[in-house]
Amino acid sequence: MASYFIQTWGCQMNVYDSDRIRDLLNAQQDVETDNIKDADIVILVTCAIREKAQDKVFNQLYAWKANKQYKENAIICLGGCVASQEGEACIKRAPMINVVFGPQTIHRLPNMIDEVRNTDAKHVVDVSFPDIEKFDYLPSPKNSGSSAFITIMEGCSNFCTYCVVPYTRGPEVSRQVEDILNEINALTAQGVKEVNLLGQNVNSFKGLYEDGTECNFAELLYLVAAIEGVERIRFTTSNPHDLSDEIIQAFADIPKIADAIHLPVQNGSNNILKRMNRKYTREHYMNIINKLRAVRPNIYISTDFIIGFPGETDEDFADTMDLIEQVKFDQSFSFIYSPRPNTPAATYEDTTTLDVKRARLYKLQAAINNQAQLYSREMLGSIQKILVDGFSVKDKAELRGRTDNNRTVNFVGDPKLIGSFINVRITDVMTHTLRGEIVEE
Ligand code: SAH
Ligand code: SF4
Ligand code: F3S
Predict the structure, then answer these.
(1) DSSP label at 331?
(2) pTM higher than 0.90 for the full model?
(3) Is residue 105 a contact partner of residue 134, using CB atoms and an 8 Å limit?
(4) N or C: which terminal CB in the chain sees fewer CB atoms within 10 Å?
(5) Closest C-alpha residue for ligand 1 atom 10
(6) Residue among 133, 228, 137 at smallest CA distance from 187
(7) Is any atom of ligand 2 closer than 6 Å to the C-beta of 160?
(8) Is residue 226 exposed (0-12), middle (13-18) or buried (19+ Cβ within 10 Å)?
(9) Where does 38-180 show beta strands of DSSP type E?
(10) What digits encode the pLDDT tens for the residues 320-371?
């Protein structure tokens, strides 16, 4: 029995992996602590998507060491995409690390920890991609909330020219269909009502059934929707290139799919999209948006942008602003391009100054925030279906829930409502949250 501390950076796939690590360690009677000082095992699940994200981990480790934040004999484990990207080299950069494991070897972590504990080995490294075996070795997931993530596929084979993910998480592999459905059934039995299907490109999901036949993403959506306990379905991330008419039809047929989609466009200039190897044009993107809005007139579109990709001109940026104007995004995660080791774009000539890139990013974010405020204000007086996920952060006497379009609504209600879907009327709109009142059935 040991106590462990775990910190997670990066995307939801890392959050999912961290929860599976918890399941693994809890199954052998280890106990989680949120105080690193008490931990016998310190686990960091890291992200390498931008340089800043990557550096943060090493800075954190050295800051902890300098302040004697962890026990002298604690076993330090580095996982996630930085571990995968740097492998052995992590230990050179931070020799206090004992175990380096990758996104596809989380199931081996307990053994790797034992090896450090029970042998002379000071360091153990395994960042291989043993296909998709990890799911065969993970215990059935435990979930205490009403919403859960389910990884339906691992890795990515798209090789966008700026991106490390195909290198850190390996090639795209879909999970077996029954395996996914069993996992969701186990979760709904524990009270989960909202499922979030995860993958780097869920639209290209191609899982096999037990009998060896193939299932695509649209088909999977119908199967998940048929599970009785599932009341809301979300998925992320969708690649516009693979968003088929069948998937759009699923939006028309399945009311359980949230009225929101995260559809990263990355840039509004065809020239830049081409050099990013995104395999679609802005016209194709607009076409998808129009088709989605034809079946779901109120669908909320959120996206990701990369600003300041090498060679981005003022005209390219103007195209991006124009796309924002046309699509009227509800939200975006936008960042300045960060060159990543071994990716093709890292070698592209980049003459735009950081000041110009910052100014572009600022302008883009202002436009999207503006749009988000308009959407929020339009919600005033409307009735929204929310999943009550706990107490309000500011006022513990109130409850909090989430709308389809991911806005937080605070309202007065009985704590018994936590974990269920209810209808609220929006009575006030703040910058970041909404207020509501329960609508009696
Ligand atoms: N699979 C998803 C994206 C996963 S990475 C997709 O294809 O849309 C999440 C986001 O990080 C990306 O959408 C992109 O906007 C951003 N990102 C990836 N690499 C980056 C880089 N080198 N610099 C800046 N942002 C990057
Ligand atoms: Fe990265 Fe492109 Fe794969 Fe998304 S689709 S994870 S951006 S390579
Ligand atoms: Fe980061 Fe890896 Fe996710 S690089 S964004 S944690 S896939």
Answers:
(1) E
(2) yes
(3) yes
(4) C
(5) 304
(6) 228
(7) yes
(8) exposed
(9) 41-46, 75-79, 99-101, 124-126, 147-151, 153-154, 173-174
(10) 999 999 999 999 999 999 999 999 999 999 999 999 999 999 999 999 999 9
